[in-house]
Amino acid sequence: MAYEMNFTPVFARTPELISGTIDTIVLSGQSIVIGLTIGLAVSILRVDGPKWAAAASAGYVEAFRNTPLLVQLFLLFFGLPYIGIRLSADHAAILAISLNLGAYSAEIFRAGLLAIPKTQIEAGLALGLSRLQVMRYVVIIPALRVIYPALTGQLTLTLLGTSIASAISATELTLAGAKIESQTFRSLETFLVLAAIYISITFAFRLLYWIVGLWLFRRSVPKTGSAVATLSLPREAET
Amino acid sequence: MIQSFGWQSVQFLFHGLIWTVGLSVCTFVCGGIFGLIFALARALGPRWLQLIVAGYIQLVQATPLLILIFLAFYGLSFAGFYFPPLAAAAISLSIYATAFLADIWRGCIEAIPRTQWEAADALALSRIQRLRYVILPQAFRIALGPTVGFMVQIVKNTSVTALIGFVELTRAGQLLNNMTFQPFHVFLTVAAFYFAVCYPLSWWSEKLKERKSAGPAH
């Protein structure tokens, strides 16, 4: 028996899908901001901090990178009340996803910090740049440029990971979809629509990262070796 | 009946761990076979095939794994195919792993300098021989670190199949939590089990990546 697709009952629930989409974007946005802040702090501690802080940071990073997000969600949502801390589903979701992203982005930021040689900083200071200018033009922007693809890739995974938060009934798109599915019995259609929405959100976020990247690195030299070659050629000709 | 968390519970979770490892291996083998085919098609195939594979990779990588699993489990069963949770889990995880492994391996194949192809061609090797004896062995060396790293992701991602009722480690944890009402103990133990599997893999992956960057440039 051939199955006839019928999207009408799903599209009838468009308002719920829209509010679910907004919830997912808000949840992702909040988690990304908090997670990147955690990641940056942890990476600086791990590279520059005292020994105990570096060890603690490494422990945090390894613990969160080597366990599933779903288990982290369960531990924070079901486990914490057991020791007296009660979080709402939405707060537990933000906390778990932020901590998860924090661990991954800490590793990425660390790679960026280690990618800038000390001599570059000394060279910048020797050219008479202020400490703030060196921080901005010599350390942060070039380091960010090295890690940008890895970082935005991780942010995409974080965005998609928010769907798992439906398991603890945090309000977001997958939960909204699961509700529609259980009331309309149009499973295939519902999840196809959800997939389409997630794909659209992901592509929209990727476009945003691309535009931010263009703006951030507008003054940088091209990444290829050509710029270096043209800069060094005349000097070689002189000698 | 409420039982308390004890040695029996740990044994119960260990049984779940076996299913987690089994599903991971199954996913890695299926995803690996299709991933290799897709990577070769993406890197070396005719233009139209490259576009199709690139589209597949882009779409799967932009869809949450949970939605893929729901599509395979609920979606297709309503459309007339019934997959038991194990099959739905294995199929959707393989689709997911194929997209990521194909992307990783394509990068590794494309990282081999063009001159290697030309040198192999100059030695009168056929196209298959060039691939088999010159390109793939070198690409394999680059790919080893990221591939082991992705194994960690596979092991962790099998946890999502708990949400369609496949009894692996996380689902075993949920069931045990319903029996013992000691979520903190249960999920901490579950996390420790995952860590015991994933940490050695992560460590190995880092070692492989270091060795690659320290090795001679070719």
Automatic annotation (TrEMBL), chain A:
State the family it belongs to: Belongs to the binding-protein-dependent transport system permease family. HisMQ subfamily.
What are the protein's UniProt keywords? Cell membrane, Membrane, Transmembrane, Transmembrane helix, Transport
Gene Ontology biological process terms, A to Z: amino acid transport
Q: Report the subcellular localization.
A: Cell inner membrane; Cell membrane
Which PROSITE patterns would you find in this protein's record? ABC_TM1
State the species of origin: Phyllobacterium endophyticum
The record's principal subcellular location, in a coarse class, is membrane
UniProt superkingdom: Bacteria
Quick one: a GO cellular component term?
A: ATP-binding cassette (ABC) transporter complex
The GO terms describing molecular function are: transmembrane transporter activity
The protein here is known as: ABC transporter permease
Instruction: Provide the transmembrane region boundaries.
Output: 25-45, 66-85, 91-113, 157-178, 190-212
Query: Its membrane topology, per UniProt?
Result: Multi-pass membrane protein
InterPro entries membership: AA_ABC_transptr_permease_3TM, ArtM/GltK/GlnP/TcyL/YhdX-like, MetI-like, MetI-like_sf
What residues does the ABC transmembrane type-1 domain cover?
21-209
Automatic annotation (TrEMBL), chain B:
Would you tell me the protein name for this molecule?
Amino acid ABC transporter permease
GO BP annotations, alphabetical order:
amino acid transport
Task: State the family it belongs to.
Answer: Belongs to the binding-protein-dependent transport system permease family. HisMQ subfamily.
GO MF, one example: transmembrane transporter activity
Instruction: Name the membrane topology term.
Output: Multi-pass membrane protein
Q: Which residues form the ABC transmembrane type-1 domain?
A: 17-205
Q: Which InterPro entries does its entry note?
A: AA_ABC_transptr_permease_3TM (IPR010065), ArtM/GltK/GlnP/TcyL/YhdX-like (IPR043429), MetI-like (IPR000515), MetI-like_sf (IPR035906)
Keywords of the record: Cell membrane, Membrane, Transmembrane, Transmembrane helix, Transport
**Compartments, as annotated in UniProt:** Cell inner membrane; Cell membrane
> What coarse category fits the chief subcellular location reported for this protein?
membrane
**Entry's PROSITE patterns?**
ABC_TM1 (PS50928)
Transmembrane regions listed in the UniProt entry: 12-41, 53-76, 82-105, 133-155, 184-204
- Give the organism, scientific name: Phyllobacterium endophyticum
- Gene Ontology CC: one annotated term: ATP-binding cassette (ABC) transporter complex
Highest taxon listed in the record's lineage: Bacteria
